Amino acid sequence: MTDTLPLRARLACGVCNLTRRALRLLGRGGTNLPGQLALRVCPTLPALLARGVRIIAVSGTNGKTTACRMIAAVLDAAGIPYFANRSGANLRAGVTAELASNIRRGRPVKRVAVLECDEAALRTLSGQLKPEVLVYTNVFRDQLDRYGEVTHTLSELETAAKAAPRATLCLNADDSLLASLSLSCPNPLRFYGVGVPVPHASSGRSDAPNCIRCGHRYEYEYTTYAHLGGFYCPDCGWRRPTPSVEVTQISALGLDGSDVTLRIGADTAPLRVPLGAVYNIYNALAAVSALDAFGIDAQTIRAGVHAAPGFGRMEHFPIGRGVTMILVKNPAGFTQVLDYLAGFGEDFDLMCCLNDNAQDGRDISWIWDVPLEKLAEGGVRFREVYVSGTRGEEMLLRLKHAGVPLPALHLVKDGEAFLRGVAADARPLVIVPTYTAMMRLRPVLAHRTGMREFWE
Amino acid sequence: MELRICHLYPDVLNLYGDGGNIRALENRLRWRGHDVTVTPLPLGAQGSFTDCDLIFIGGGQDFEQELLLADLARGRGAALKSAIADGVSVLAVCGGYQMLGAYYQNQAGHRCGFLGAIDFYTEAGDKRMIGNFAFRCGAESGGSAVVGFENHSGRTRLGSGVSPLGQVLAGFGNNGADGGEGVRFLNVFGTYSHGPVLPKNPVLCDQILETALARRYGACTLAPLPDAEERYARAAALRELFPRNWREYV
Fold first, then answer.
1. CB of A216 within 8 Å of any CB in chain B?
2. Cβ within 8 Å, pair B23-A364
3. Stretch among A103-117, A247-261, B21-35, B138-152 having the lowest mean pLDDT
4. I want to staple B172 with a disulfide (CB 3.0 to 4.6 A). Which of A56, A280, A366, B176 is the partner?
5. What pLDDT does residue B197 have?
6. What pLDDT, on a 0 to 100 scale, did the predictor assign at position A367?
7. Is A378 on the interface with B (CB under 8 A)?
8. What CATH number is associated with residue A255?
9. What residue numbers bound the domain in which A401 lies?
10. Which residues from chain A sit within 8 angstroms of residue B131, using beta carbons?
11. If you write DSSP's letter for every residue of A17-78 in order, what string do you get?
């Protein structure tokens, strides 16, 4: 069914794969160059490479990588060969390079792809890729300082869906912004959502307070987190659509995972989401919805999600006497980490990495809402505390005010170099990074322990 | 010496780490060997300002405003006004700052009456003013460059007899138009700066403490502190705003 590629496209693939290999030999992964070169040689390359490949494309503001990883875990469990783009390479060039690396002798090797796409990149890619399933995670002004981008993002996602009208569109029913795409897109639709309120979650409706259809203020039957929940407009009647994939009960929300009851169509059963926090329940739902739309049976989906490896939130590396990395994004999460540290049964060193890039949140004042005083109150067995990151100095000041003795506090300029230098007999080290700090530090640890990179 | 700090409405005005200001005020006194007490005064609680030297009011969310106004109307507002007139020191941030003015007018033109302790008002704007920002305090407030994070849609305009706390160096400040940021009135320091503002702006912090100590003990100058970590944190924030010439503002 699939013809071999035209000569120009084969040439472009060759250029792409050779540059990629060369760059890796030089120790430089994650660059856009190979894809850019390939697109220069053959601008229609993505469309040619996507022929004969069943594609699940994932986009949205938050959770793309995690949702992709869960989809991948299920495909692994189902024994379906697939390829996927490595985290971070989700722009046009990165996606193209991933597609090119799947080509041998002018034909695609694997016939299933899981592709994470940046919202803006997807707008131009989706018409060429013609994905079978298009899953959107959420639309957030994910950080307060990104205010104003939300309708822009939404319109890009809308354009992308309309450019691939045969793709089944999986939407978060609890997100009034995203769900509204069902009003304008011609695609076959699936919805997923959480059908119950989430205890102790911080809800803030400022992202989407007013009805996208008529402007009246939304009412909520319940909220889950941020502006997500059982919204309805008392004026025009627009309301949360009924999901086909739904969490109907949350039994436990923990640092390392959550126990929920998940309904897939008519099939209801308990599920352990192997990552903590509410937003990971949503990421799991996005993955389940995509896989359901892709035709994977409920049994296989459940088993696969359950087996998905935890990532970042709490991950252990066999370096020295153990390195543990725990991702933090907000005061609530960091407070849970402090409880974990209080229970640490031996002396350890702590490393806090605070970045203020857009994905971390430009506003770092939240660290002052974390009760870091608990560290210094006694009983917590930390010895040295290292800080790093674009705003590591602020963390230093925060810890000084929290009462951590100054001789134990160290400002580390280069966190990656520091981790490369952790000695074999070092004390256990707990690293607490924000998102983009984790993305920089994890590869160092993975490299040292011979672990695979995200998608390798 | 000893200072009594009142944290007004810590239960509702608690957004964006502004509680860090309390830590800075407390610790900078303790590190110098002075005593300090912090008394939270939540919504509806009994208590007055007669025994306090310094009042801190943080920022909050719009939807809690009504609760807050009701509490102010039950006598708390009048007490706060007379404390201000008596020269009690006040640090008010963002929503807490707006609350001291005459009113807040939303986009539909509806006016919500505020305390009216100081001659200024705030109107809702359509574009939110968000980001790291910096301003230079007036000489009467220490004259230092202050670096913080602003996040507000309200535009505040000061009456003709009222001075801003400082002049904007980068960012928006009171309204993004007239170059002023915050307000300085008697011993009231009003600002839009989160961050929180005091920990990494020790000159401003000490200035506020000194006004409060002066009222109680007569003119005083606080002993200098090493402030190395404060300088690092300032430099990191300033570098983002002024990549080339941040040293001019340290």
1. no
2. no
3. A247-261
4. B176
5. 97
6. 94
7. no
8. 3.40.1190.10
9. 315-448
10. 145, 362
11. HHHHHHHHHTT--S-SHHHHHHHHH-TTHHHHHHTT-EEEEEESSS-HHHHHHHHHHHHHHH
